[in-house]
């Protein structure tokens, strides 16, 4: 029974009493949502917000897009099955058709599709099982700063140790390699030297018979580290990882759960490097806002026995209908190109803010997956001359933005990166509004920090 009242404050207080302590977003984004349309959220008190979180990148077309709503309504009105396990339907076959059409021909021509349980982390778990079954090997290669989900196998791949430390029984034999994070290069190098050294390190490590890594079952990487701080991998480095894995017959798993279907300015992030993975994990956008995840992989890896991998909700027909509508709309309206253009526009705003405030150390990303790293100019710079990350100030920017009607999230190392994941349909005028709000929010956060620092003890 709802007893918290109808105000946002009352509902949030009720949520805090009844929900798990593990809840996250309400702590920094105190929203009780009443309605949503496109890139706009409205809370129960009538306040409106521009949504640059979009379900952590799930809502490629924004909230309640007519193409998605109509497709779901049609399914229900015609008394179609909603849940079918892995039995097929015309709706499912149409989804697979559109999914394969969205992929490069070289990949799609030999691709198999595995439907999983509904979350992205389920796709990662299925991919791990797939490559271990196909190769007979057990060790996995992952990257520092990576994020692949919160189930045991996916969590084992994560670069952030804080999330893993309290969890017993993580998957063994995961080796974390250096990701080419140019702004804070793990080797203390600038420019191209960072990715070149990372690639050489990986190559040499895997070639070293005394390196302690038994034959890997697979390598897992993100073409843009999302939760890790909107860090794009250089195309040249991605091509090197493809070369290194191909020469050693190591399946390359590209995790596009957050980047897939247009967000980076290409339909898929790996297309920036013109490579073809062995395995692709997808969720978020491909379900059109509903739970759906798949693994797409080369047929040479399809050695599973019937029933070797399952999941009760792998037959979510509403998700497939919504996903089909989303894929079709992205393809028909070239939303990958729109994302590239709007990303460039937003990035220009963010770079103007970075030029104004020392507290913005770096602006990066691809398409409409962008990040702004917030730093402490009073701290000691590192060997590259970059100030230390400032997660508290990033949180202050997020809070100031929320007060001004903008929903953004923080992430990255030490929570210091303000992240932007708006719908791919967002307009130029909205992008300009976001840029203005962010600029004023950084100003407010910086000035607020200065006032606190100058206050008498």
Automatic annotation (TrEMBL):
Keywords linked to the UniProt accession: Aminotransferase, Pyridoxal phosphate, Transferase
Entry-linked Pfam families: Aminotran_3
InterPro entries for this protein: Aminotrans_3, Aminotrans_3_PPA_site, Dat, PyrdxlP-dep_Trfase, PyrdxlP-dep_Trfase_major, PyrdxlP-dep_Trfase_small
CDD domains: OAT_like
Gene3D superfamilies: Aspartate Aminotransferase, domain 1, Type I PLP-dependent aspartate aminotransferase-like (Major domain)
Cross-referenced PROSITE patterns: AA_TRANSFER_CLASS_3
GO molecular function, one term: transaminase activity
Region named Disordered: 1-23
Cofactors: pyridoxal 5'-phosphate
Cited PANTHER family: DIAMINOBUTYRATE--2-OXOGLUTARATE AMINOTRANSFERASE
Family per similarity comment: Belongs to the class-III pyridoxal-phosphate-dependent aminotransferase family.
Protein name per the record: 2,4-diaminobutyrate 4-transaminase
Species of provenance: Natrinema versiforme JCM 10478
């Amino acid at each position: 029974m709802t007893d918290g009242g109808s105000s946002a404050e009352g509902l949030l207080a009720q949520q805090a009493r009844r929900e798990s302590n593990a809840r996250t977003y309400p702590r920094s984004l105190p929203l009780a949502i009443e309605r949503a349309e496109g890139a706009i959220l409205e809370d129960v008190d009538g306040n409106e917000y521009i949504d640059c979180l979009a379900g952590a990148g799930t809502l490629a077309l924004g909230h309640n897009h007519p193409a998605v709503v109509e497709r779901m309504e049609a399914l229900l009105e015609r008394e179609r099955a909603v849940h079918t396990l892995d039995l097929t339907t015309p709706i499912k076959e149409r989804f697979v058709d559109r999914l394969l059409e969205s992929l490069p021909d070289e990949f799609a021509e030999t691709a198999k599709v595995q439907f999983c349980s509904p979350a992205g982390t389920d796709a990662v778990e299925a991919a791990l099982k797939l490559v271990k079954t196909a190769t007979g090997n057990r060790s996995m290669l992952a990257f520092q700063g990576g994020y692949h989900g919160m189930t045991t196998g996916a969590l084992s791949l994560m670069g952030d140790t804080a999330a893993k430390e309290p969890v017993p029984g993580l998957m063994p034999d995961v080796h974390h390699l250096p990701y080419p994070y140019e702004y804070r290069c793990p080797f203390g190098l600038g420019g191209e030297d960072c990715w070149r050294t990372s690639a050489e390190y990986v190559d040499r490590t895997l070639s070293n018979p005394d390196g302690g890594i038994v034959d890997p079952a697979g390598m897992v990487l993100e073409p843009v580290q999302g939760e890790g701080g909107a860090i794009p991998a250089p195309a040249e480095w991605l091509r090197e990882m493809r070369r290194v894995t191909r020469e050693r017959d190591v399946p390359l798993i590209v995790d596009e759960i957050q980047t897939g279907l247009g967000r980076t300015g290409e339909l898929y992030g790996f297309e920036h490097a013109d490579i073809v993975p062995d395995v692709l994990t997808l969720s978020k956008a491909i379900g059109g806002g509903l739970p759906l995840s798949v693994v797409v992989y080369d047929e040479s890896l399809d050695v599973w026995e019937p029933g070797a991998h399952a999941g009760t909700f792998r037959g979510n027909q509403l998700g497939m209908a919504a996903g089909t509508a989303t894929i079709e709309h992205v393809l028909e309206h070239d939303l990958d190109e729109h994302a590239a253009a709007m990303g460039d526009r937003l990035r220009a705003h963010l770079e103007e803010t970075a030029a104004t405030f020392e507290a913005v150390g770096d602006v990066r990303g691809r398409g409409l997956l962008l990040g702004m790293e917030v730093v402490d100019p009073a701290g000691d710079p590192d060997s590259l001359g970059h100030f230390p990350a400032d997660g508290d100030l990033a949180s202050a920017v997020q809070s100031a933005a929320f007060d001004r009607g903008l929903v953004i999230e923080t992430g990255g190392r030490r929570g210091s990166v303000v992240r932007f994941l708006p719908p791919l349909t967002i307009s130029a005028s909205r992008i300009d509004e976001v840029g203005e709000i962010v600029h004023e929010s950084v100003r407010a956060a910086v000035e607020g920090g200065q006032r606190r620092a100058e206050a008498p003890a």
